Amino acid sequence: MTIINMGSRSATRTRKQQRWCTQQTLTPLMEGPDPDMQEEGTKKESSWEHIREWFRIQKGISSSTNNNISISSSSSSSIYSTNSNSIPSKRQDLRLLLGVLGCPLAPIPLVNDQIHDRIHIKDIPIETSSAHYIIQQYLAATGCLKQQKSAKNMYATGMVKMVCCETEISSGKNVKSLGTRSGESGCFVLWQMLPGMWSLELVVGGNKVVAGSDGKTVWRHTPWLGTHAAKGPQRPLRRIIQGLDPKSTASLFAKAQCLGEKRIGDDECFVLKVAADRAAVMERSEGPAEVIRHVLYGYFCQKSGLLIYLEDSHLTRVLHTPENNNVDTVYWETTIGSSIGDYRDVDGLLIAHQGRSIATVFRFGEVSMQHSRTRMEEIWSIDDVVFNVPGLSMDYFIPPADIIDNQQNLSP
Description:
about 400 residues; 14 strands; alpha+beta; DUF620; 14-stranded antiparallel beta sheet
């Protein structure tokens, strides 16, 4: 990781907090190819395929419990040539956690227009004009309207704890619950530079996930899937709009609709909705996996004007094809709800420093009565936020070489 001078304030704080210990050895990080996945050769899988494989293993465990059938027998009908059942279940759970909660993206790109300009409400639907007013209140509450100049870049560090709670498998009248609350702790470093450039390094349970964007291409690297680019329009990282960058959050909801009011805990909130249009979700489809919709809801407190809850729902349909051996078209719905709080002043802006995300992955078919539901959660906190980091340039957001090579091969 490149170390950049962030000024005397942050450096002094870091030196005061450092404690060196030579007795304890550090756990090595897994950054390169996963040794358990070497048999796959050069095959690339998309993230939804890995989620599907995880559910298949859980179903095999349930079948072996009910019918005394070994897991290996159920794997003989696997659509993959991988040896996934030899991988410890704890590591499989961690891969699912990182795949779903590690670095999800928002459903739509940011709006580049000046969102704090004067609003002309003539001929604008009441749902849209109400949303504009709520966003103006949010910008005022976070201190964005007071700033004469916008921050050019941002640096943030934080801690996470991810927990895979349980899986519920239902077949008609029978419902089985599997798994325990196994969790892993970790940390992350996030860099952002306008417009649309960001870089995230997340380490949990000895596994390192890296993702980023140069403003044109969003990419991600995991030890088990390698490096791949996200399809469709360039979209922001969800962690950034979870209270870390109020202006990016406001930009995301610039064309939102106000759905009304809803109570979240003890707070009455306005509910804003944005959704990816049909053309955008079609661009993100890949092979038999077709993205149906991706919707984001923001809950803004009526009393404080701050964003206190964020929820998005992503639905994918996997069509039946001879290659994947599906007997039914399968739907995958991923829902992530994030509570956002502990707002603190950082250089005149209110930045959220704590939160909790709960994700649910729901699998169901068009014909079959069987369905599966897995619940997982992440508790996160922010340790440090610095704006206008000296020396940070566009060179720090260049995608990996294989992403650039693939783009050059695809270009005419």
